[in-house]
Amino acid sequence: MTTKKYKKNIKERTRKNVTRKKRGGKVFESGGYGCLFSPPLKCKNITKTNQPGTTYVTKLMKKKYAKREYEEIIKFEKILKTIPNYDDYFLVKNFELCVPEKLTKEDLIHFNENCSALSDDNLNEININEKIDELEAIQMPFGGIDIFDYVYKIHFNNSKMIQLNQTLIDLLKNGIVKMNQLDVYHGDIKDSNVLVSKKSNSIRARLIDWGLSKIYNGEENIPDAFANRPFQYNLPFSCILLSRVFRQTCDEFLKTTPNPSQSKLKEFIHSYLKTKRHFSKHLIHIHRTIQVLFKNEFSVNKHSGKSLDIKYAYEYISNYLFKILEKYIKNGTFRVIEYFKQVYLKNLDVWGFVSIYTYFIDYITNKNRKYGIKHFKPHQLKLVHKVKDAYMLLLDSAEKPVDIDSLVQILNELDPLFNDSLREEFKPKEKSIFKLFDYISGNKMNHSEVMVENKNPKGISSKKNSAKNTTKK
């Protein structure tokens, strides 16, 4: 609550915040490569922020990680800035490499608790200034909060979910599709890699984390970033077809069976999927998504009420792979480059985008479970079925590019399903990043209120891996 004393000093404190970098900031989030400070740390090579009225944060990392991330961002910005209003879709603008000055006592408040990323490198509030020359930082605009946290914050409010849905559709049509047309492929779109921030009376959703992104200009080889990835819930199932192991295994199969029948091809796929190398936590997540969306199609154990194992996910995966191999095995050869260029690259980021909507179902499921609700309510089921339509569009587009117009039509049909009866009424404890989001959005709050103690740095989000986020490494 805003006190009278605070209201009286709003203007004065706002002025102090503009020059706050002179005193540095506090850690408000930690990831695998570094920690975020707000207000920004003092940098030896930066005397002022780039854009008046823009709130900046500083990401402190080991030098090699800072340089690598900065170079990635600059490389992609040079291409993405040709897209109209690119700053509404990609968080790549106004980044600067920062040579940090020594951290102050204020910077180090709760440093050990909140900056686990650097603590893992044996850096702590006692020795970090002695090793400051080993570190470098990136000064960047504060990008907002990710989809996971944003939905959590708005409690699935119907009007705000409609606004978010339309903002995401705009990101797809005018950001992701146009990015792919420039031969840039993000490769890791998911709810934790899309940040939501306020813009005037609306919001914008922007992509972050370019660590797995590639510029592909039609070379006759598959980039390593795409070639050896396991099953992931935000990638097409066919990601495993690009691996060297699969291609070698497929070549051996085709030597003895150059023109396989449908039954032989299905047998080969099932045999390949049974190998232990494919098992992962992501595969369990894929199974659970399929289990929720296609529940009526499963056989269940009547005693436990649960699906017997992850074989159901394998059935959907196997059917998806079969469609691809049936089309792209020609004259005893799997035309993997042909498939990669014609289909995979066009569907890669679309799959990641649709995975954001499966998170909405996870949200409803988790909240139902919290209140002991075992089955979706009728109004919830309508939303689940619509997300299922989007997922089915992906599954039906195994051997061809996803029809973006059809996907947009499905997503637009979600709007009337975000009604008041879906809203979660409980009020979770506010996270410090939520307070920073509110501050940036124009609410009356100073930085001392923003940077509250975070006693559980890993509790920023129970789902996302913030280590990889551009503003969260």
UniProtKB/TrEMBL annotation:
Lineage of origin: unclassified sequences, metagenomes, organismal metagenomes
Coiled coil: none
Species this chain originates from: viral metagenome
Domain Protein kinase: 22-434
Residue numbers spanned by region Disordered: 1-20, 451-473
Gene Ontology molecular function, alphabetical: ATP binding; protein kinase activity
Classification via InterPro entries: Kinase-like_dom_sf, Prot_kinase_dom, Ser/Thr_kinase_AS
Comp. bias regions, Low complexity: 462-473
Protein name listed in UniProt: Protein kinase domain-containing protein
